[in-house]
Design brief:
single chain, alpha/beta, 5-stranded parallel β-sheet, two-stranded antiparallel sheet, 11 helices, 7 strands, 39% helix, 9% strand, globular
């Protein structure tokens, strides 16, 4: 794993704003996301991490189990409105952009070229520039950001938020800021608006377990000591509206070893 100075500095930022580590939605993997519901709510684009979110770490091919969900995502938002932002593929560490080209080929989705790693503000600037360059530009609050790391993907998404305007929009355009589940359920409107930060907590390959344990500890602390009741209610409403039940897993047939057979016979 490359040295990530912006990521190393995140804990110091959390001392000032611990809410940065709190995702809007938590899922096992992207199969639980209801992409048509997100689009209906006004979201128009998506940013995805690569490793342990779409692919096995250090591989370029989509995880087969995610093929249907990935197809639905691309068809819902449109291929050019889905962007992969990785701290490996497309970064300054990707010599000749070879990995970015490979990932883009296998996932049929553009990969952001950026010189600063997530969750830096320079990387955020590159993401904004990409979505602003589309034929129909996409604003921050029309994005969902999906990733498996709290200190990079979730923090980056929350850094893109801004203070909510006290004046309602009069354009009549259906935007996430106007069509949130909170308004539908009569809950208090959040103080800040921005991308929907989605954390995929499942792992396709175990890695960086100590750092992940630290991330979970920071999240639990923020949820317990910082979040207000109305913020917790807001997150719960998002979870209810945009998350589908996890697909039923096929039962695995485990071959019984001779030790287990002996123990079973002894107990019987």
């Amino acid at each position: 794993m490359p040295f990530n100075l912006p990521g190393v500095l995140v804990p110091f930022h959390l001392l000032i704003n611990p809410r940065l580590v709190v995702p809007s939605i938590v899922v096992k993997d992207i199969r639980q996301l209801d992409f048509p519901a997100l689009y209906k709510a006004g979201y128009r684009g998506a940013v995805f991490d690569k490793d342990n979110c779409l692919t096995v770490p250090h591989e370029d091919r989509l995880i087969p189990e995610l093929a249907e969900a990935w197809r639905e995502c691309r068809e819902t938002f449109g291929p050019s409105n889905v962007l992969i932002v990785s701290n490996t593929a497309g970064s300054h560490l990707d010599a000749g952009e070879i990995e970015a080209e490979s990932v883009s080929h296998h996932l049929s989705t553009p990969v952001l070229r950026h010189t600063s790693l997530k969750p830096s503000y320079a990387c955020i600037k590159s993401i904004r520039a990409y979505f602003a360059s589309l034929p129909r530009p996409i604003r921050d609050e029309e994005l969902v950001v999906v990733g498996d790391r709290l200190l990079t993907d979730v923090v980056m998404a929350n850094r893109m938020s801004r203070k909510a305007s006290s004046l309602s929009t009069k354009s009549g355009v259906d935007t996430p800021e106007k069509s949130t589940p909170v308004e539908d359920e009569g809950l208090a409107r959040p103080e800040r608006v921005g991308p929907l930060a989605i954390w995929t907590e499942g792992l396709w390959k175990r890695e960086s377990l100590a750092l992940r344990a630290l991330e979970r500890g920071l999240l639990r602390s923020a949820e317990r000591w910082v979040l207000k009741p109305q913020e917790a209610a807001w997150r719960e409403s998002l979870q209810h509206r945009f998350v589908k039940p996890f697909p039923a897993a096929e039962e695995k047939v485990v071959k019984e070893g001779w030790v287990r057979r002996m123990v079973r016979r002894f107990r019987s």
